[in-house]
């Protein structure tokens, strides 16, 4: 089950063009996304209403999308405007279109009741337009339910075990965060005092000794996260010309359910513009990408595989599961309210 009355990210703005069709499944529904002749984003069902051939196998033309099975063409609203060899076109010959909006470099699609699709309710990601930051956009296709990813990002104790080859620290193993539940999300703050610098941070900054680490997380139901990570040397004499002050990273995360067992994970990693250049940004981005792609993702996907083998097996909670459990309850309440 999914929360339907929500704006979800279907693509990065740069993923869409006026020359090609992007096929992507959201909440179990196959969709196509593209830009029309004026450059505006369009999202429709990936299903010709004639014989249900995928429109993603079709052709994008200036005035619409042509199905390459029997040549039917649909305009940007989904209405059939051409049937080769047939003059009369029934009003019912239509492909469903979905509310879509472009904001903060994301393409957002509304998968619920169309009359409730208000762009004013789209979560803002100000990082993507902040001139004080440079970032790299990315995505993963994860073979796991989106709530398993939320479990992962809301419990930083796993940094002590999963990420010791990248940006983890053994000091994370027993740290409880400051946790502040809100009406539609959770705020977390992890503080690690006097922790050893990882090789990654030493190579980036030239610092030595220990640092205080602060991780501030804002999670918004059903599947969005914004993070600020700050590293401050215990001895200010460790500051270097390249990094004269605290090291700060920011990131954005959007988990879009594809199916019950797969997720599109859109994310960014950002450095301050005064903390190195493109080379430093590439270096930090690649370490973060490795951390999730090669450390987190295999465990999360293995979790999903185990769950499928025995869906009735119970998950037992420990004290560090407070935030993930609150997030799951919030999403369950949203789904329950939609079902009524």
What labels would you give this structure?
340 residues; 4 helices; 34% strand; Naphthalene 1,2-dioxygenase Alpha Subunit, Chain A, domain 1; 2 domains; single chain; Rieske Iron-sulfur Protein; alpha+beta
Q: Can you identify the CATH class of the largest domain?
A: Alpha Beta
List the helices and strands in order: EEEEEEEEEEEHEEHEEEEHH
User: Helix fraction?
Assistant: 10-25%
The total of helices stands at 4
* Number of extended strands: 17
Overall number of structural domains: 2
Rg over CA atoms: 23 Å
CATH superfamily of the largest domain: Naphthalene 1,2-dioxygenase Alpha Subunit, Chain A, domain 1
Provide the structure class. alpha+beta
Q: What fold name stands as the CATH topology of the largest domain?
A: Naphthalene 1,2-dioxygenase Alpha Subunit, Chain A, domain 1
Q: Which word captures the global form? A: globular
Query: Largest sheet, described in full?
Result: 7 strands, antiparallel
Cα separation of the termini: 14 Å
Unreliable stretches covering 5 or more consecutive residues: none
Averaged pLDDT: 94
Strand order of the largest sheet: 11-17-16-15-14-13-12
CATH architectural type of the largest domain: Alpha-Beta Complex
């Amino acid at each position: 089950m999914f929360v339907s009355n929500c704006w979800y990210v279907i693509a990065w703005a740069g993923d869409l063009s006026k020359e090609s069709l992007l096929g992507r499944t959201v909440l179990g529904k196959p969709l196509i996304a593209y830009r029309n002749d004026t450059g505006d984003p369009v999202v429709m069902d990936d299903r010709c209403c004639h014989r249900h051939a995928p429109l993603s196998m079709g052709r994008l033309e200036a005035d619409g999308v042509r199905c390459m099975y029997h040549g039917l063409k649909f305009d940007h609203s989904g209405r059939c405007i051409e049937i080769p060899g047939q003059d009369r076109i029934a009003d019912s010959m239509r492909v469903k279109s979905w509310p879509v909006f472009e904001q903060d470099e994301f393409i957002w699609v509304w998968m619920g009741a169309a009359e409730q699709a208000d762009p004013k309710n789209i979560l803002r990601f100000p990082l993507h337009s902040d001139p004080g930051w440079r970032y790299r956009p990315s995505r993963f296709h994860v073979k796991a339910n989106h709530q398993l990813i939320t479990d992962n990002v809301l419990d930083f104790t796993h940094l002590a075990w999963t990420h010791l080859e990248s940006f983890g620290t053994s000091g994370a193993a027993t740290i409880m965060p400051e946790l502040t539940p809100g009406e539609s999300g959770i705020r977390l703050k992890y503080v690690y005092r006097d922790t050893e610098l990882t090789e990654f941070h030493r190579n980036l900054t030239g610092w030595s000794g220990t640092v205080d680490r602060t991780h501030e997380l804002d999670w918004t139901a059903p599947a969005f996260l914004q993070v600020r990570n700050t590293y401050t040397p215990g001895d200010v004499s460790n500051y270097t010309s390249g990094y004269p002050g605290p090291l700060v990273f920011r990131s954005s995360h959007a988990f879009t359910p594809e199916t019950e067992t797969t997720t599109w994970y859109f994310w960014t990693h950002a450095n301050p513009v005064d903390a190195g250049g493109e080379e430093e940004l590439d270096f930090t981005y690649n370490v973060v990408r490795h951390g999730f792609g090669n450390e987190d993702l295999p465990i999360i996907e293995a979790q999903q595989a185990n769950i499928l083998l025995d869906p009735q097996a119970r998950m037992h909670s420990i004290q560090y599961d407070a935030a993930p459990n609150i997030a799951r309850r919030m999403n369950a309440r949203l789904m329950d309210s939609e079902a009524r």
